Amino acid sequence: MESLRVLVANEPRSYREAMSQALSLVRPEVGVRRVEPEALGPALAECDGACVVFCSRITHEVEERALSWVEMYPSGESLSTVSVLGVRDVVENLRLEDLVSVIDRTGNSLAALNHAEP
After folding, report:
1. Which parts of the chain have pLDDT scores under 70?
2. Which structural domains are found in the chain, ordered by start?
3. I need a surface site. Which of 19, 89, 97, 98 has the fewest CB within 10 A?
């Protein structure tokens, strides 16, 4: 399995751009990629499963293919749904630190799995 990638596909575009830049600064070792929401499916296919997705609307494909994901502010609400390796939680007023925590938890688990493989 390849290294962890982060796909940022949330709306509006200005948030997507700011978030991807901030995440690239705080976690430069992780491949952060900005993706138009309608291009999320093909981008997920390129991740080989080693992917974290931040988006505005969760699809079946995101649930099935991403290791972890965050559905950010659905319907303009202040609540976001976070799923890290299948464990879901609801977070109010999501912050950058919360997103970094999702990346770190997922990356640590992926590293442990890669280390355990013969």
Report:
1. 1-2, 114-118
2. 5-113 (3.40.50)
3. 97
- Which residues contact residue 4 at a Cβ distance below 8 angstroms, ignoring those fewer than 6 apart? 30, 31, 50, 51, 52, 67, 103, 106, 107, 110
User: For the whole model, what pTM was predicted?
Assistant: 0.92
Decide: residue 33, CB within 10 A, 0-12 exposed, 13-18 middle, 19+ buried: middle
**Residue 50: what residue type?**
A
- Render pLDDT for 42-52 as a digit per residue (tens, 0 to 9): 999 988 778 99
* DSSP strand pairing (79-84 vs 68-71): antiparallel
- Calculate the CA dihedral of residues 48, 95, 72, 74 and round it to 10 degrees: 170
Tokens of 106: 């997922």
Distances (CA, A) of 42 to 23, 76, 90: 22, 26, 27
Q: Show Cβ contacts of residue 63 under 8 Å, excluding neighbours closer than 6 positions.
A: 69, 83
